[in-house]
Amino acid sequence: MKELLASGERVTLLDVRQPAEWEISHIDGAILIPHDRLRSSLDRLDRNERIDVICHTGVRSARAVLLLRDAGFSRALNLEGGLERWRSEVDPGLPSY
Question: What is the pLDDT averaged over residues 71-92?
């Protein structure tokens, strides 16, 4: 994902955590749509674009990907391990919680 974001390829990094979690730590360039508001916010997303979904550990993002795919977002993918995995493998400077 780090290389993909750096490459300039169009991809939406969708964070489905809650605003309080976002305030603690988030990946630059991500957009926040909490999981509980995702269904009512689908019009903010492009069905043709790749959407990589992230949460804290990968559980909520996996559910969000199912919702997105059911709604016609065939290029939605889950970032397994979530922000915690990103922090441990890519950016150890991100705060943990």
Answer: 94
